[in-house]
Amino acid sequence: MRALVAVANTGSIHEAARTLHVTQPAVTRALRDLETEVGLMLIVRSSTGVSLTHEGRALLQRAELIVNEMTRTEAEMTRLRDTRQGRVSIGVTPLSAITVLPKAYNRFRQTMPDVTLEFSEFSASQLVEQLKSGALDFALGSGVDAREFATVRAVHLATFPMWFSVARRGQLANATSLADLQDAEWLHTAPSSEFQAFLTELFARQGLAPPRRITRCASQTLFYSLAVNSNVVTSWTHLALRTEGAAEELKTLDLLEQPPARKLFLLFRDSAILTAPAEYFVRCIEDAVKAEQGTRGARAGKAS
């Protein structure tokens, strides 16, 4: 299985052998044994390298999952020998990075300072693909509802109201009506069709055509940079807006109704078995959510 995955990733017996730190004959023999065991031809050799047959590509999906699970199992056994070591791979969407993840990370690090962590930012559909292949231990994904993650296990963590904002020192900061924003560029991180439909309805209720420039940005860093340095309309949670830098740079547009709230989900592959460090990180996230909800409740009580 490792040989099949390595050949698929590199397209070469030679490169696969180098990746696996074995000889080329060992890789060839492993692939031949695998073909004999399943009774199907899995690879085809050509002058340009090695490619997978249709049957090989079908098996590859299972092989990637098996190899990733075995790698994770080996890491867990190593961790049991060497306490509080291991590796956790977490997929995220932008909302998680600006809400609960930083606090969860800090708590996790206090207890497990030697665990190797890897955070990867993906779209909702990419998170699902990465989870199903076993490349991620778990993920934090955001959406309007759980239907975006229908093929994996989704656990609702929290719902975050959203507000539109503009650069505090930009031209759009003086807008007094929706018509003033018709020619603006609207920057968002949500699925394009969902956001487009919301804006179309919002403008139509005031007898206006929807804005022509609606841009999706999957990078949180670029999203923030454009929000504070360009004449764009963006949407944020209050958690993001009340940070020191954002509070100075961004202004909420109270003249607009709020965009759809975003829900944060913990995502797992069905039947996934988490390692101890991954389980602990999940608990840290759940505790961070409870703490934030408590803080929001206390602020709401004072306001009332």
Automatic annotation (TrEMBL):
Pfam family for this entry, one: LysR_substrate
Domain of life of the native organism: Bacteria
Domain HTH lysR-type positions: 1-53
Gene3D superfamilies named in the record: Periplasmic binding protein-like II, Winged helix-like DNA-binding domain superfamily/Winged helix DNA-binding domain
Annotated keywords: DNA-binding, Transcription, Transcription regulation
PROSITE patterns registered for this protein in UniProt: HTH_LYSR
Keyword GTP-binding tagged: no
Sequence similarity: Belongs to the LysR transcriptional regulatory family.
Full protein name: HTH lysR-type domain-containing protein
